[in-house]
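Entry 12.
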Amino acid sequence: MRLHHPLTDLAPHRRGIALLAFVPAMVVIVVLMVAFVGVTVDSSRWSERRLDLFRVRTSADTATQLAVESLWSDFEAEFGAGEVRIADARLFLDRLGITNQSTLANPTDVDLLPRIGLPTDLNNEVALDGTVIESVRVRRMDDLRSTRLEFSTTAVARRGSERFEASNTRRTLQNIFVIEPPPFEGLDYVLLANNINCIMCHTRVDNVERVYNTDESRRSQFARVKTGSIESFLFRDDPESSISGTLYLGASALDESGARISNWSALSLEAHEFDSNGRILEGPGGTLTPTALRPADAVNPQPLENLYVDYFNFEGDADRYQIDGALPREFPLPFPDDGGYDPSTFVATPAGADNRIVDDNEFTSSLAGVEGSASGGNIKLIPTGSVVNTPAELAALRAGTDTLEGVVSGNVYMHGTATNPIRLDGDIAVNGDVILSGVILGSGSLRVKGNVYITGDLTYADVQSGGARQFGVNANGGQNLLTIASGKNIIVGDMYHAAWGSGPPANGLETGSWNFTMEEISIFNRMEWMKTQPTLPGQPEYLQTGWSAPYQRELFETVNVTTDEPVYETRGTGMFTTVPVYESQATGSTSVPIYTTITHPADPPEPYGSPWTESVITGYTNQTVYTNVQVGTEDVEITETVQVGTVPVTRSVTRSFSPQQFETVQDPIMEWVTPYHPNPHYLGADYLPRYYAFGEDTPVPIFNKGGYFDPLREVWTAPEHPGAWDDSLLTFADSGEVSDPILFDSLGQPKAVVSTLAPTAGWISDSLLRSLTEQQFSTRDSAEPFAVDAWLYSSNSVFGVIPPRGTPGVNGRMRVNGAVIAPDVGLLAPNGMDINFDRRGRNRLDVRSTTQLVIRRQLWAGGDNARRGVVSATIPE
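Predicted 3D structure (tokens):
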């Protein structure tokens, strides 16, 4: 947990709690400044008054800072050891009598001067540098997500004159400090997930500004990009990927066999050079300079490397902690998981906190300021409870002409075209699911409580100049920018696509295909399951587990025994017999085919497909036909075998003693035994796991069989994927059965959360949703990669499948211009993926940390005798 003031946390890579420790130093600096001014100013009365006013303001500001430091350090001492929320800060302030005044008609202040601890003079007045601090009053004003402390500090100069009384130098300094969660640090990444595996097989990661830049004067001016994996990163031996920036691995990187990677040069994975300022180096036309990924020195890591392995292990040394920027350990819900507030009473409802679900109050409580609109294109709002089950209802959905304003309840369909794009103006919040595709014009965000389905290309209506795209700029000169935040999951393309392009579509049941979506669900579920297990099964060992009961066993002796063995000989009898003689002769010809073996490349590429061979006829040839024909006879003597004598032979023979002898013995009992090892990934009994299921009535598959935990490498070792509905490899939990020990406790109460991918409450049928995806696939240019111009953020997952073959309109390639950030990312684009970072999205996506609080000064105003009004904008110091 970090509690900090952003102005003092000058080394963001340092671990710990940065307080307002600069305040005492500030007091010294102020005194020195005043002393300097005192010896250089004019000695006139006006100058004296100006000096007095300067002292008053600086002393009042110092007293305010000391009050803040006192509050914050005491709060840190009580709550700083673990995770803290805004509710903790409010509880702390309540105990001090600093209560919320935002709902009161006549708010009151609390004087903090006594708790600052400044010395008093003989008049029992708090004196500071020739001034008297009369009061340091604070008023607390809470809103939904932050607490504002409005300070009003009054000070007066000691010195007066015949023209200027001391009261004329009395000033009240206004300061506003805000306590709130800081922005989520993961928004600096183009790709960030807990676990990354197949997405990096054929992926290029780059900066979108660089990719679309055509101005030679701007070459080498674009920042590197960041890719991060928090828990594990699995590389195959042929990843064929490149990163124009830095890769951060919170833990170790593993090869496809589960072994730690030590020889990075052996991988077909490359980076691109960047300079000492982190700018990507470019040649003419934007050419890049490839370089090998080089792990930073674990003992003495430096900033601006292109690879950090075991990045969290740098924590032991404060000087090395996250030396190249933060790699977060969390993925906060886009709607803070704190229970929210009752919208009618403004009373907190903490019962829903920390349940990894977006509750209604959490959704509504986080929507202050959501006042955007979406119009144009085809937009349809389906009221909650209504369903789309027929082709006619689907047609009506696609022809919708609704406009969305601010916050809407229901499920939404949105599709834009080049001539009729979706016009986005600001932020939209949807209490339901969203189906989205087509052309976007304008800037804003979609904050969705449910799932988001990107069923077709999602592109910006960007202007073209000289045949080149001006990325993110529309014909009106404004920005095109879309950020998507989902409280459930984001699904791109066809999650129903059948395995290997044949068979029934996936439906989460054994009647459907076991496809890529199901593979990823089962693997991600295993990662969650592991966090709930205090111990994990290791590799079975064949061990002695005991002894059999004693029994009597006869003893034997071995002796040599010589015997006479007969000798045989074969010889003629003097008698003959006549036998036929045959000869092979050509009797004709026939035409036979010539076969050639042809090898076809894997489609989809390995490991999703394999090369295959076939024999094809490439011509014909005449071949002579031969037949055996009798050409005569011959006489053959008849032989016989007869014994002609004997020969002595000695052999070893095992036989019973005479008389018989016995011994008492016990045999070892050998069995296959599975050892259990302490689990370093166990998060405790209070951890609430989140599993995935395809639909609300489908099982939760967990790929936790057929493998074992390796305690030396601290990884689960198993085949890469189960490949089928296989009970020997998969455990199936049942969310509809309260006796299920994985999802429910002994009292039948839920102890896990299940997040589903299919439309919530079946508001649109799976078959219609898939038909919509297939239709949009079929109408696109198959030579172009499937395109998504947007930021994709989910606190659960981003799933997606772009089929490589057998589906019209797609070619297995995908391009994302934005970012992909989620705990679990399962995107399959087997023919390659481009992810280009659009840094603009960081300012549009409001996701806050759940493990930190910061305090920052929002307003400073000196010299007024009356309290100033509250300002809405942050004023930097």
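Annotation: The two ends are 25 Å apart (CA to CA). Residues 1-42, 160-164, 863-877 have pLDDT under 50 and may be disordered.
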